[in-house]
Amino acid sequence: MSGLSELGRFSEPALLILVSLADGAKHGYAIQDEIAALTDERPGPGTLYGAIRRLEEREYIESLPEQARRKPYQLTDKGRAALRAELRRMQAVVHTGLRRLAVS
Amino acid sequence: MPTTRDRLVRAVLGLYPAHVRDRYGAEIADLLSHSPKPARDLADVAWCAVADRGASVTVAAVRPHLIRLTGLIAAPFAFGVALAAAASVALVLLGALEGSGSAIGYRLADVVIAASVLPVVAATVWLVRRTGRGESVRAPLFVVPTTLALGIIAVASLPSVGQAVGETWSAAVVAALCWYGGVLGLASGAVAVARRARGGFAWLVAALGGFAVLELACTAYVLLVHRAYGLPRSSAFSAYPAVITGFGGDPAGQLADALKGLPALLTVCTAFTVTVVVTRARHRHAR
Predict the structure, then answer these.
(1) pLDDT values of chain A reduced to their tens digit, one per residue, 104 residues
(2) How far apart are CA B248 and CA B266, in angstroms?
(3) Alpha-carbon distance A35 to A49, whole Å?
(4) What predicted TM-score, i.e. pTM, was given to this entire model?
(5) Which residues of chain A make contact with B51, given a CB cutoff of 8 A?
(6) Which of A42, B147, B267, B269 is the most exposed place for a label (fewest CB within 10 A)?
């Protein structure tokens, strides 16, 4: 196992957080809003910060100085590479799956 | 004035390991305070906090808590040894009095043995008030009565020695459970009073409540065994004061035979519990 899959039950929220941060730094509340818009399900604060903590520990994201009493987070180069690798892996799975569905 | 949601948020954040709470607590609290689904989000945070705490538990971190809990479970046994030692000293003194020609000697044996509980209670209260202000035991309101009740049942279950806290094991266990239920309520009430009232009033409420709890436990014991000892059912009520003072004539002697050292042990355990929780509550209130 490598990349986000080693985060166990936090791997999916972690991927969504990385996607949310791909276009710029955001604080927890904005990340939560964006994930809700993306998946129709708002992650709980415990799940969200459980994933944020694990991403920070692996240096995939980093916090920035507080703005208006909220701490924004941004992707690191390592996190950007991990997100790209994960999305490519998913793209290959999606491509294969769709191709096989079309064949059957 | 904190709202119910604020209190709940503080409580669930308290479940996190300190390093996680210090780092992310304010941000999680911010999301919880703006949550459109507070119940679901509180449950989510509580679940994640407990999982994080479980993941961060190490033998080294748990060891001091286990040592304290073991100490508390063993406390009733230590109290029992102290009570036996105090009663032995009292008997030796009575023997010396009798030997010196005094007429009062052994006639006061029951009263003097009963009174030997006082120095043990006084020493326990003194010791707890000196050392019980720290935060060494978490949630003492629940932990202290629970561990002491387990310790009392453990003492009652010891072969031979167990009979010193009541000849009938099942009745001793029921009495210990009654004591546990009563002392949980008493400790909660005493803490509430200690936070609102002056110290003297809090101690008075604790003493009166403690007496009621001890009477409840002893009554439960005697109600279960009174036939075997040929005692009237009515003797169960006010069994505690009759045995603990040593006054009361014949029924008191029979009650003492049935209850043995149980009233004395429960008295020390009650004093210990109430002193721990009230001392801690007053110390916190003063900060």
Answers:
(1) 457 888 888 899 999 999 999 999 999 999 999 999 999 999 999 999 999 999 999 999 999 998 877 899 999 999 999 999 999 999 999 999 999 998 65
(2) 20
(3) 13
(4) 0.62
(5) 50
(6) A42
